[in-house]
Amino acid sequence: MMVGCIRQQGTDEQYEKFGKRAENFEITGAYAQTELGHGTFLRGLETRADFDRKTDEFVLNTPTITSYKWWPGGLGHAANYCVVVANLYIDNDPKGVAMFMVQLRDEKTHMPLPGIDVGDIGKKMGFAGVNNGYLGLKNVRIPRTNMLMRHAQVLPDGTYVKSPASVLAYFTMVFVRCLIVRNNSTMLSMASTIATRYSAVRRQSPINPKEPEPQIIDHVTQQMKLFPEIATSIAYRLSSTKLWQLYDQTAEDIKCGEFGRLPEMHALACSLKALCSRDSANGVERLRLACGGHGYLASAQLANLYSAATAACTYEGENTVLLLQVGRFLMKSCRMLMAGKPLVPTISYLQDAIKVNGLEKWTGSWQNILQALQIATAHKIRITFENLTARLKAGQTEAEAANNTGIEYTQAAELHGTCFVAATFLEEVTGPNAKNRSPALNKVLENLLELFLVNTAMKYMHEILRVANISDMELRALQTRLEDVLKALRPDAVAICDGFDFHDRNLKSTLGSYDGNVYERIFEEAKKSPLNKKPVPDVIYTHLQPFMKAKM
Amino acid sequence: MMVGCIRQQGTDEQYEKFGKRAENFEITGAYAQTELGHGTFLRGLETRADFDRKTDEFVLNTPTITSYKWWPGGLGHAANYCVVVANLYIDNDPKGVAMFMVQLRDEKTHMPLPGIDVGDIGKKMGFAGVNNGYLGLKNVRIPRTNMLMRHAQVLPDGTYVKSPASVLAYFTMVFVRCLIVRNNSTMLSMASTIATRYSAVRRQSPINPKEPEPQIIDHVTQQMKLFPEIATSIAYRLSSTKLWQLYDQTAEDIKCGEFGRLPEMHALACSLKALCSRDSANGVERLRLACGGHGYLASAQLANLYSAATAACTYEGENTVLLLQVGRFLMKSCRMLMAGKPLVPTISYLQDAIKVNGLEKWTGSWQNILQALQIATAHKIRITFENLTARLKAGQTEAEAANNTGIEYTQAAELHGTCFVAATFLEEVTGPNAKNRSPALNKVLENLLELFLVNTAMKYMHEILRVANISDMELRALQTRLEDVLKALRPDAVAICDGFDFHDRNLKSTLGSYDGNVYERIFEEAKKSPLNKKPVPDVIYTHLQPFMKAKM
C-alpha cells in the first residue's frame, strides 16, 4: 500500500528514492491515515505538518490522544518507514491534507527514533497475524522533500502550489473498493463450498421416521440456507467483473484528461462495495450457522472467513457513509432528469421507470422481475427526492435535510445497487455470453439466476408491492418456484462448489475438504491442540485441585 | 448441569452419592450428550451401554469416530466424572436413551482411567475459557446402579422398567430455553449500552459543512442502528418475564400430574429461543458495526458478546429445528381449529384471525399493527396448511410433505413468535402495569413500543400487504412515524441504557464505560498488549530482518 501510494502521489524522484527501496525490501513500510478519533472524514484529521522555512523542514505532531494514528497494518512493529497523512500548515494557515514520508525506526537496530511513539493496538476480532499499530509524533522533523509532491507542492520559500487534479486521489479509493467486491465475493464462494460439502457428509434427523438419517443437504430448509449463498456469490462475482471493465474504461478516460465518467464509477463502486461486503459477511455467517455446532469450531475456518468478510463493512469507507454518498448521487440524477439532461448508463433505467405509474403487469419472468425492481427503485428514489425537497422548502439546510432523509437515501442506494447486480446476472446468462457456454452449463447458471431473482424479488417484495399488483396466488406461485429451483439445484450443488476450484490448502477447513473426511480432520485438529500436550495440564494441579480443597 | 441432571434423573440415593459430592466440590463433572457425528436427533446417538447380567454392570463403548462425545463444557480437562447419555441395550435389544454416571479420571492424580480417551476439542469462535471436550469409551465398566434411575430402571435380572413420564426430560429443555431468552436479551441490552454510549462520545462527519463534527448519535442513520436494538432488547426481556410466568404455572401443573399445558409451553419456548437468539446475535453485530472500526477491537467487547450470543443459535436445539417443531405445533393447532376444538391461549388469536378475509382497515394504531401481524400470521399458517395438505393428497408421507413445506413452516413459526413478543410489549405498556409507573417513564416506554411496532410492521410488510390494503401515502406516513420516534428517543437514549444498570466491570468495554473516556481506555488497553512488552519484539530480529536480507 505504501509503495502504491508513493508511486501515485510521489514524484518520480521520490519513487526512486523511497518506493524502490521498499520494493527491494531494504525498508518496510505502512500507510497511516486513520486516527484514534478520526476515520472517514479526512479533513478532520488532527495530525499536523507545519512548514519551517528556516530549516526547509516539516515538523510533524499528533497534539492530542485522538490524533494518534490508529489501525494501520504493519505499523505496530514491522514498519521502519511510513506514509503519514496530515493536515499541512504554512505559517499556521491550513492548506489541506497531504502525505509525508516519515522514518519511524532505525534501519539497523529497529528502535523507534526520537519523538516517535509506536506500538501494537492489541487484540482484534480477526487479523491475528497483522500488527495493526498506533503512532504518536512529537516534533518529528523531516526534509521538505519528504512530502509526496506529484500533485500539490510546497516550494522552499513556503509557496503552496495546489494540485491540478485532486480527483486522482479519489480514484485510488474506487480501485480499492472494486477490489473488495472481488475479494468478498470470493470469501462467500469459499464459505459456500465449505458448508455445502459438509452438508453432503453430515447426516441428521430422519425425514421419514423409519429411514436412516439423511444427508442434511436433503432437508429443504438446509437447501434454503446454502443455495442462495452460492447464487449470491456468483452474482457478485459477475458484477465485480463488470465493475472492473468500467474501471478500466474510466482509467483510460482519465489518461486522456476526461473525468466525466468518474461520478458514475464512484457511485457504482460505493454501492457495490457496501452491498457485497454486507451480503457476503451475512452470507458467510448464515453458512456457518448452517453447519450447526461444528461451524463454531475454529478449524471449520468459517469464523475466520466471517472476521475477514465483515471487516470490509467498515474499512475503506464505512458502508452507511458510502450508501449516503450513493444517495446523494441519486438525488443529483433526479435533478438532472427533471432538468431534461441525459443520465449516465448505470442509472438510465430511471428515465423510463420513474415515468410509469407502477409495473404494467406482473408476469414473473426474469425480465419482468428486473423491471419490477427497477420501478420499485425509481419509486423509492422519487419519494426520497420528494421528502428531501419538502424539508428544504420547510427551511432546512441541504445538509440537514439530507441527514433527516438519510434512512431513505440508504434504502434507495441499496435498491439501486441491487438492480445493477440483478441486471448483470441476467445479461450474463441470457445475453451473448451464453452462446460461448455449453447448454448444460448454461442450464445450471439459469437455475442459479432463477434462484437469485426469485429470492431477491421476495426480499424486496415490500417495495415491489408498492408499484405492482401481485395477487396472493401469484405470490404463492413465486414460493413454489423457489422450492422447485432448490430441488433442481440439489444434484448439482456440490459440483458447482467444486467448480469454484478452491484448493484444500486455501480453504483450510476441517468441514469443507474435497475428500469429505470431515470427522477425521476435526479429530486430527483437536489432537493437535496445545491443550492436549499433556494428559493433565498443569493448571489442574496448580489451580483446580487447590480450589476444590479450599471449597470443601 | 451435571448436578441438576442427577437431581432430576437420578434417584434420591444417587443424588446423595454423586450429586452432593459434586456440590461439595469433592468431584468435578460434565454432561456429555452431543457426539462428533450426532446432535439434535437423540435416538441417533451411537454411544452404547450394554448390560452385563453376570457382573451386574454396564459396558460403555463409543464404537466409531462419529460416536465420540464432542463439545461438553468442562469435559476436556476439568471433569473427573461425567454423565454420559447413551443408547441402552439389554441382550443386544435397544431400550432407548439413558444416562450413566461414569468416572473419567483418578480423583487424586487426575489421570484418565483405562478405556477413557479424553481431551480438549481445540479452538472455537468464542468461549476461550471453557475446556470443551471429547470423550471416547472402550469397554468401560460401571456398576448397574450408576444408571440414573429416577424414571426408567434396569433390574439386576435385566428387566427393563419403562419411565412413566418421559415428558419430564423434555421439560428440562424448556427450562434451558427460557433461560436463553433471558440471557440473550441481556446481551443485546449490553451491546446497546456500549454502542449508544460510544455514539454519544464519538464525533464524525459534519452534518452542516461549516459546523464541527457532531456526536455520531445525531446522524439519523446511526439512530436507526441503535434505537431499534434498545427496543428489541426490552421487548425480549418482557417476553422472557412472561415466559417464566408460564413456565412456573406449567411446573405447578406438572406437580399435580397435569401435562396439558406442556405442548403450548414447549412451542412458545422453542419459538422465543430461536427468535431471541437470532435477533440478539444479529442486533449485537449491527451494534458492533455501528461502532465503525473500533467495534472490531477485542477491547470493545462487542465481538465477544457476539460470539456468546450467536452460540445460542445452535446450542440447546438448533434454531431451524426448533422452528420446524413450532411449525408442526401450528399445523396441529390448525387441525384442532378445523375440528372445532378450542385452542390454547397463546395461539387463540388464530381463531378470529383465520376467519376474516384480511384486515378490515389499516389505521396504524398499535392495536391495529398487532392485529395486522396476527392476521398475516394466520394467513401464512393457512397457506402452509393448504400446501401441506396438497402434498399429502399427492401421496407424500406426512414427513416428506412436512420437509417439502419446511420453509413455510419456519416462516409461520417466526411470525407466530413475533406476534407473542409484540402482544406482550403492547400489554405491558398499555395494560394495567402502566398504572404502576410514572407517566414520564411510561412515555419513554411508549416511544420504545412505537419504534418496535413500526419497525416490526415494516420488517413484515411483505406479509402484511398480503392481507391488508395500505396505500402508498399510508406507507409513507409509517416512514415518517419511524423518523419521528427516532428523534423523540434521541435525548433519552443514553439514559435508557444507563437504566439497564450494567456495571463497567460487567461490560468490560473500552467503548462503553459509564464515564465515556473512550480514547483513554482504548489506549490503555493497547499499551497492555503483550506485543508491546519490548520496543522491538524478538521476531523482528529472528525473522523479519533475515527475511529482508535474503530478499535483497
From TrEMBL, chains A, B:
Pathway: Lipid metabolism; peroxisomal fatty acid beta-oxidation
Residues annotated as domain Acyl-CoA oxidase/dehydrogenase middle: 30-140
GO molecular function, one term: fatty acid binding
Obligatory cofactor(s): FAD
SUPFAM superfamilies according to UniProt: Acyl-CoA dehydrogenase C-terminal domain-like, Acyl-CoA dehydrogenase NM domain-like
Entry keyword Lipid metabolism: yes
Residue ranges of domain Acyl-coenzyme A oxidase N-terminal in the record: 1-27
Major subcellular site: other
Presence of keyword Nucleotidyltransferase: no
A Pfam family matched in the record: ACOX_C_alpha1
Assigned protein family: Belongs to the acyl-CoA oxidase family.
UniProt-recorded name of the protein: acyl-CoA oxidase
Source organism: Musca domestica
